[in-house]
Amino acid sequence: MAIEVRIPTILRNLTNDEKVVKGSGDTLSDLVTDLDQQYPGIAERLVDGGKLRRFINVYLNDEDVRFVGGLEAKLSDGDNVTVLPAVAGGSR
Amino acid sequence: MRYDSLLDSLGGTPLVGLPRLSPSPEVRLWAKLEDRNPTGSIKDRAAFFMIEQAEKDGLLSPGCTILEPTSGNTGISLAMVAKLRGYRMVCVMPENTSHERKTLLAMWGAEVHYSDAAGGSNEAVRVARRMAEENPDWVMLYQYGNQANARAHYETTGPELLADLPEITHFVAGLGTTGTLMGVGRYLREHKPDVRIVAAEPRYGELVYGLRNLDEGFVPELYDESVLTTRFSVPSDAALRRTRDLLHKEGIFAGISTGGALHAALGMARKAEQAGRAPTSRSSSRTPGGSTSPPAPTRAPSRRRRSAWRASSGPDRGPGRRGPGGVRGGRVRCPSRDRRSVTEAGFPRGTGLRYVPPQVGSCPELGNGEPVISGQSV
């Protein structure tokens, strides 16, 4: 199952400067685990204490994952995941 | 329609249907034309409420100086109110703000200080805070954390929407200071618990995110995630495409942020249809007939409230500002401020936070519902 993940500039030092990477997983949590195996260190930048970091926004097909299950959000083949730093209105 | 002063004409903006963009007879979209406010943007509401609250709190008296970090619209709105109420207005904005906005602020009498463009709105906020410390007699209203910002929408925009569209099911608006979404969202939830409050967040250019430190993101103090049902990130190209759709199909010349809100509204509609929750009854118009919605609340938005305020400072205006049914008359007018946004080239040029999607409201899904759209700049 291929999930396309868009990486923000600030994290591209972990993805060999790749803007878009591929990952897999049934849930967002699984996807992060998979990404961390490919790009060590990325999980720590996204997750803290089992939750998404406060100023990290992750969108599943453009919808904020915090409203669709958070790290347990279900993924499907062909989904797009976008990681962005909070600019405004991020999660407290 | 007659008003005793420009401020008295604030709010009461028209809600217009978008029949050609609405995805189906069951899913109808409506747009609230906030360009009908005195300076042409929704920010007039927040500006008026924040200044009025500061006056009530004893922070402002004629001759005082107001300071605000802004990317444009709020500054213009504050400058207008400040001019009419006898205050000096000082704005701090990123130096790459469009020439047009700088000129507008100057014409309204505001004094503009510039912050480093690379730092975006966050840097403007930092500079403004430093200036406030250096000038303790100045009053920084701070739209990102001023509850009067959200209250403006709780007391005016929300009641106006519900009065015009009692069958509303969704409210979609841009996410910037979050004042519109928090204020309207809370009001609608109190009166229609099932309503969906949807945020459309503009996805800024690489420059903005490239500079953003993940540990220092910006979250406005007003933001309360629990008010929202969900939140969409709208890519620039999608917002631009919807902005053009709005012009070509509905004749409404709006800004890019409105396009972003429209994109999110249409996304919600598709999602509802895919989930098989399409409504079984057609939502017709703003007329509440046949709806299972509760009766329309008494229209008690901004003008009535302002009349109460005016009672202490001048003669009341008396009735008759609205036609039968509470719907304002008049032609649909091009949202001039938004039009400028569109011509400002591409999309979030510069440092983000300049465009916060416009508001459109109501999107079907549960039956007799209608989404509404809206958008704004900070």
From TrEMBL, chain A:
Query: Which domain of life does the UniProt lineage start with?
Result: Bacteria
Protein's name according to its UniProt entry: MoaD family protein
Organism equals Nocardiopsis eucommiae
